[in-house]
């Protein structure tokens, strides 16, 4: 029964139920529409360019309109009209919406357009109508279309049948992985996060080299999602899960600064929000919770976002309130912490496929890229064969150029000239036509040696490309070289920071945080700790602890310019899970090199202007010491008299000075000379008895007991602890934990047998 017959039956007998066989029902328009939504709107092809049809058609329209990275931009409404009129006849809403999404830096990891005007600069920013902005292909999107002229992809008829369009674009980077995708279709949903461009290219190169065999191997190259809005990702278990299984989730969290305001108030400035969350979303959620009786500690919330400042949600906290507890509640009750559900669903050779591993997505791109490269190379070989054939004909004519010119001049028409050239010089019709197409001036000036050299060059390229296509290893290496060039174009630093903790550790930290939050109003003992420039507090001593303090005490930040800045311990987050960057605490202009207590002496060292030291107590915020011009600090730590300061030269010498022998001086004094070693200082350490010093060259490692290194006065020229070969230098130094006599035995000049 046809659709028409069904409609007629219904009209004729509206009261009677229509009897339709099930097999006919499922083959009606509904199924056709579902199939269309899956393949042409919602899901992308893994073994293709990873673009939705509307995205592909916009890029192709720009390419056909002559857009390129160095050219002018084109009115957005004109691009939309061209796309709708020739390739995507579905109205302006979908096309213009796709244009905006592809060009907005906060939605896509690599924006596809250079923009004149604005498409919306941050989440919540209203995009203008297409007639108010201009777009064009940038250097990144050019990597998606550059090979269209090289016949590296196939074409199909458009929906209207009036034009041809590429089935896929000949992309040179994994668009699906880098920019991610989302879509909802009949029975399927897809949500794949963006990833870092540099990391993705490294993974693809490793794939071609045979270094990636499992999804776990991918983690060596791609650390995890890299979201356009930055922020934090809490933990690595969720990442490993979706890498392996194609589904799972990870926790996103905003980044913030805490600023002390007059009269005890504080400002919590969230300057990076989770992906897809706007400041408007956060303010709306806070206001709703305040109506429910929460967030009484918050006096005001402002959206300070603008084009110059960027994303900013300013939260003002009342005087006497612990900002850390407010932050914990913000993460708990607002979208400043939220989950990103991963559902890696896409088309695999046209078939909707769920739970795709990251290896399948990388492999899909790499195989597609290989296919494009082969087609491009075959096309080039065809051009080369034609060119070589033409040059062979030209060389045959150049044997007697005067005779050839005479034939051309005396012939009645081109047909006669062609026939005589073919007969005289034993060339074919295509060669003769090439010669006749040349001007006589060009023909007379043609240099035989130049022609021979050019023909030789073409044949060499022909041979090289033929060898590449016939050898899998050479083929992969050629693709790798292309990927390396593309990597240079799209390379980008990571925006999203990933905290390397497991789900189990996160759960434990959450329990500790809940327990600790009840104690925040009490003055409790804690330890100030630091990892990779991020500071936090702990309740128990750890390997990362710097010093013991109290929750209501203060800590001091020391910068490389010798500035001292104060921070209240209650504003330092508890646990590494919430750790924040030192340099964000007070928006410092110079790099923080350490966090110290105000209770003990601080030893300061500098090597930029010579090896200099002081030992001084900190009495007030300000300047720790006076530095010589063009000099900066490399060490500032709390110390006691049972320690020594050790300077290491690139020639393998150590100058060790007992701190008990260094006279205490006043804060703000100038530095004094620490030793008389002649060569360059490569490191400074505070060391204790029984600790082990580790010195490195490019090729060797040396372990030395601190106790085997004699202490000298400030005039010491150093003591040799690492014997070096000619032209060998010390590159770095570090120290290890204490060794017992059972673990280590001194030998020779500070040597250590392990």
Protein described:
By secondary structure, the protein is of the alpha+beta class. The chain has 22 helices and 37 strands. The chain is globular, with a radius of gyration of 35 Å.
Number of strands: 37
The major sheet is characterized as: 4 strands, mixed
Low-confidence stretches at least 5 residues in length (pLDDT < 50)?
Answer: 1-18, 28-38, 740-754
Number of domains: 4
- The oligomeric status of these chains comes to single chain
CATH architecture title of the largest domain: 6 Propeller
Round the Cα radius of gyration to an integer and report it.
35 Å
- Counting DSSP H or I runs of 4 or more residues, the number of helices is 22
Strand adjacency order, main sheet: 14-9-8-17
CATH superfamily of the largest domain: DNA gyrase/topoisomerase IV, subunit A, C-terminal
**CATH class type of the largest domain:** Mainly Beta
| Average predicted local confidence, pLDDT | 84
Q: Shape, please?
A: globular
Q: What gap, in angstroms, lies between the N and C termini?
A: 87 Å
> Which fold name fills CATH's third level, the topology of the largest domain?
Neuraminidase
